[in-house]
Amino acid sequence: MAYYRPPGPPPDPALVKSLIQQQQEMRLRVRAEPLAREPCLIAGCDSSFPTPDTILSVFVVLKFPSLKLVEKVCNYGIVDMPYVPGFLSFREAPNVIHAFAKLENKPDVIMVDGHGIAHPRRMGIAAHLGVLLDLPTFGVAKQKLTGTFQEPGLERGSITPLTDAKTGELIGEVVRSKDKVLPLFVSPGHRCDQATATRLALACLRGYKLPEPTRLADYWAEQFKKEVR
């Protein structure tokens, strides 16, 4: 996800308290489990902020395992939620849900450009969306948000664990998606487990750093932006 981080005063403590409570309640609904069956359709999801007050959310749906593009949609809207560090999912989720509603082909699993449980409160955007949609989701992020890890080997497919610095809990895996490029951070969201998330991320690589679902979501986001500017 491409986040807009505006300067400004500290967030309202009452708002932060409310958001923490909502995340804690949603976290109780998150389930880590393998997919019931191999997916036929996999979606990629990405959001960006063309202006400080607007958001563009994109879904692409691909056949799996061929990764042939089936459908692409976007939704452009106004952002009502102020920027609060650690709670960006609340800025994005409403518009992402609107974009999802436009899909004619509903996916079996969603790959989100962002984190799943690899979040300080285990509720990154992939987990957040998974709970709201009650669909299998996982996150593929380009940067670490929390946790500790050792650098994976330089070869494509090298993997190391991402763990909570205090508890040692496994919260994701660090995956080298292409030889000698910076790794990706893969974590389950909802109704998905770590093994499934990493396996699908690797299965969707086609020579680029990013797996095809999120790579194409990012590509089409740039195309759709030209229409709303």
Automatic annotation (TrEMBL):
Q: Which InterPro entries match?
A: Endonuclease-V
Cross-referenced Pfam families, in alphabetical order?
Endonuclease_5
Q: Where in the cell is it found?
A: Cytoplasm
Annotated site residue numbers, Interaction with target DNA? 83
Specify whether Coiled coil is a keyword of the entry: no
- Enzyme Commission number(s) from the entry: 3.1.21.7
Cofactor(s), by name: Mg(2+)
Q: Which GO terms describe its molecular function?
A: deoxyribonuclease V activity; magnesium ion binding; RNA endonuclease activity producing 5'-phosphomonoesters, hydrolytic mechanism; single-stranded RNA binding
Query: Keywords assigned by UniProt?
Result: Cytoplasm, DNA damage, DNA repair, Endonuclease, Hydrolase, Magnesium, Metal-binding, Nuclease
| UniProt: Mg(2+) binding residues | 46, 113
Q: Which GO terms describe its cellular component?
A: cytoplasm
- Source species of the chain: Hymenobacter glacialis
| Role summary | DNA repair enzyme involved in the repair of deaminated bases. Selectively cleaves double-stranded DNA at the second phosphodiester bond 3' to a deoxyinosine leaving behind the intact lesion on the nicked DNA.
Give the protein's recorded name: Endonuclease V
What is stated as this protein's family in its record?
Belongs to the endonuclease V family.
Q: Which HAMAP family match?
A: Endonuclease_5
Q: Which reaction does it catalyse?
A: Endonucleolytic cleavage at apurinic or apyrimidinic sites to products with a 5'-phosphate
At the top level, the lineage of the source is Bacteria
* UniProt record, GO biological process: DNA repair
Q: Enzyme group, top EC level? A: hydrolase
